[in-house]
Amino acid sequence: MRSASWYGDPESYELRQTLSKLQGVPMQNILVGSGIDDLLGLVVRVFLNPGDVAVASAGTYPTFAYHVKGYGGQVHRVPYTDELHHDLTAIAYAARKREAKIIYLANPDNPSGTYYRGSDIKRFLDDVPNHCVVILDEAYIDFAPEDAKVQTEDPRLITMRTFSKAHGLAGTRIGYAICNSEIIDAFHKVRLHYGVNSIAQAGALASLNDREFVQSVVREVEQGRRDYKRLGAKLGLKTIESHTNFVCFDMGDAATARRTMNELLKRSVFVRRFDSPPFDRFIRVTVGSPVERKMFADIFEEVMHVTSMS
């Protein structure tokens, strides 16, 4: 690619211009970064001083806590509900009680796959203290029902999206944040200006102009989730109703989940398992292509037979 010899546009101007039209927000309210992980670090740098508190669900996407701890902050973790949803009431209460500077919320959630309606998130924002910003990680929003999207101009809300999932560009590392322009201005003071390469910007722009591809990915993932749910039922395993591109299988307890993961790894199948309860008893499996799903199903059935005999 000829443009690989050039630095990426530090303003991501063309990409932001297209995103502005698609999302219906001014360009000055959009910042492009090298994936959501990069953007999470910017929020922590801007809003958190050493010793300050951030609030997140216990067991949710761990990279946010990685940044908080790296910059000297503290993470207060709130347990999930029994239905494996974020406990929005408890999160807002913890933010008030501990004078938190940041709340992190993934919707749909990683690793559970559950989601809240946008109207629920909007009501949640009403309970959040004014001094606290809310990161809404919408990495999986393309796979969620339409009512998951939040309709609000709340200046405390920082919405993050990625090209890694439905757009298929995980390896290029590119995502974006939508928020108040004053927050964007603060990000510009600390961000790595040439951190998003030209290939990533070109790929993201092309993907935005190919909605049929994205829609085809979403449709295939929906079918894959149904396949995995049937597979779980066949094997006597409960699954969490997912609105992402993965499905969590309930293995019953942490030891069985760990043993299953290791047996799959011996057969060159990589799945996720988490150390934090309540997710330590689950394995999380990404929805692959039809061929990959068939291969996984065959191997998973074999592993279940092996683990049941041990």
TrEMBL record:
- This one is known as Histidinol-phosphate aminotransferase
Where do the Aminotransferase class I/classII large domain residues begin and end? 4-297
Name the keywords, alphabetized.
Answer: Amino-acid biosynthesis, Aminotransferase, Histidine biosynthesis, Pyridoxal phosphate, Transferase
Check the record and name the Gene3D superfamilies matching this protein.
Aspartate Aminotransferase, domain 1, Type I PLP-dependent aspartate aminotransferase-like (Major domain)
What processes in GO biological process is this protein linked to?
A: L-histidine biosynthetic process
Which GO molecular function annotations are given, in alphabetical order?
pyridoxal phosphate binding; transaminase activity
